[in-house]
Write a structure and sequence with these properties.
single chain; 447 residues; alpha/beta; 9-stranded mixed beta sheet; 8-stranded parallel β-barrel; 11 helices; globular
């Protein structure tokens, strides 16, 4: 359920007409709904009832400070994968002691910053990482809490790019190696064993792979406990899918209910951490874009050329994702006879201005549009703005958050000058031999 709906035919975010936001903030522009973010987070939280749990929102899905802050106010924890994400969480008022650090390639400076901030737990993915965290903890005179991420070799039945729990994926450790890492951690005074972690992929629309992964993880936890290695929580990762178009993913209540039922068979009331990203943020956002032109292609295709491209929203190009695209103004009825709409419905490929044929937000979409009309790409709140780039020297989109009848620009559109701030040119040829004449901001390095 989300809070994007039509009032008198016109698409709104909560009580704000999207057309007003398009006028005020310009396009392309991401629009988030606070009430939707809160609703989704609470759906996970409520499903746990009084079972001890922590919801660590996966910052990678949408790390805008306003988004993080809204969730922090609810008491959310955070799942980070970089030092940059840690900075964001802290800047947004998130609690370090509810933050866990996942990721297959943590760098030493990131480990140091996470230790200094006092995060709750590192989810370790290799033997090498265990040593580096231990060394950093020793230096900082701290004890680092660690879980090991298990690779359960389960097929998540999702797009191969976002499947992470198969043996051939780079993520986690197979059971036998994970077990050896726990034994080493137990013998290491700089480390405290905290939990067992597992994450098998993203956009899962079926509970079956989760069941398999959880069964293996619980079996592994039993083995640990039998060997005298106690754990204080189970981290089951994220990955719950959303409805982009016609998918029917389990609800948070069904997903959490499955976890709790399987845990009930486990001897202990093990506290559970989950790391949902997409299921909280995706349906809480749309990408607002304006039609630049309509044109008939050289073949039979009609193109609707919009001002948002693959640099703004890469999911359709990268994962062949189908995201719904709808008119912001009242659309014509299916037969195109709605008196309120001036244009008939036609089928378009909705494409952006980027110079690649992959720059297509959606193929074969039935729309009633004219030049300069607004369209909304739905379900764009997760893995949208965070994956935007400056390709084709395009500014990344602005971001707006709606809260009831008010809206706030929570990320300004970049300036054109910002696109090459930090770049510099070589000294003029005449001066090349004389380093002292080089522009102050040009670094000169010699072999
Ligand atoms: N925890 C870990 C360890 C993860 O690797 C991920 C996602 C999550 C949690 C959150 O998963 P979620 O609940 O959002 O599915 N860019 C891709 C998605 C990449 C997901 C990577 N890991 C997309 O647009 O589909």
């Amino acid at each position: 359920m989300d809070h994007f709906h039509r009032i008198d035919g016109r698409l709104h975010a909560e009580q704000v007409p999207l057309a007003d936001i398009g006028r005020a903030a310009g396009t392309p522009c991401y629009v988030y709904s606070r009430a939707t973010l809160e609703r989704h987070w609470r759906a996970f939280d409520a499903a746990f009832g009084n079972h001890p749990h922590r919801i660590c929102y996966a910052v990678k899905a949408n790390g805008n400070l306003a988004v993080l802050n809204v969730l922090a106010r609810l008491g959310s924890g955070f799942d980070i994968v970089s030092g940059g994400e840690l900075r964001r969480v802290l800047a947004a008022g998130g609690a370090a002691d509810k933050t866990i650090f996942s990721g297959v390639g943590k760098q030493d400076w990131e480990i140091r910053e996470a230790l200094a901030a006092g995060i709750a737990c590192f989810n370790i993915e290799s033997e090498d990482e265990l040593h580096r965290i231990s060394a950093a903890a020793a230096k900082a005179r701290k004890v680092a809490a660690v879980s090991v991420r298990l690779n359960p070799d389960v097929d998540a039945n999702t797009h191969p790019y976002i499947s992470t729990g198969l043996r051939e994926n780079k993520f986690g450790l197979a059971e036998s190696r994970a077990f050896a890492v726990y034994k080493r951690a137990r013998a290491d005074a700089n480390l405290r064993i905290s939990g067992v972690a597992c994450h098998i992929g993203s956009q899962l629309t079926d509970l079956a792979p989760y069941r398999d992964a959880l069964a293996r993880t619980l079996e592994f936890a039993r083995r640990l406990e039998a060997a005298g290695i106690g754990i204080d929580h189970l981290d089951f990762g994220g990955g719950l899918g959303v409805r982009y178009h016609a998918e029917t993913p389990p609800t948070p209540a069904e997903y959490v209910g499955m976890i709790l039922r399987m845990l009930a068979a486990h001897e202990r009331r093990l506290p559970v951490t989950i790391e949902p990203g997409r299921a909280i943020a995706a349906n809480a956002g749309v990408l607002l874009t304006r039609v630049i032109a309509l044109k008939r292609g050289a073949g039979d295709t009609d193109f609707c050329i919009v001002d948002a491209g693959m640099n703004d929203l890469i999911r359709p190009a990268l994962y062949q994702a189908r995201q719904d695209i709808v008119e912001v103004a009242p659309p014509a009825s299916a037969d195109g006879t709605d008196a309120a709409a001036a244009t008939a419905v036609r089928e378009y490929d909705v494409v952006g201005p980027v110079c690649e044929s992959a720059d297509c937000l959606g193929t074969a979409r039935r729309l009633s549009v004219r030049e300069s009309d607004l369209l909304a790409v739905r379900t764009a709140g997760a893995y949208g703005a965070v994956m935007a780039s400056n390709y084709n020297a395009r500014r990344r989109p602005a971001e707006v958050m709606v809260d009831g009848d008010a809206f706030y620009v929570v990320c300004k559109r970049e300036t054109l000058g910002a696109l090459y701030r930090g770049e510099s040119m070589l000294p003029a040829d005449d001066d090349a031999a004389d380093e002292s004449d080089a522009a102050d901001d040009v670094e000169v390095n010699r072999a």
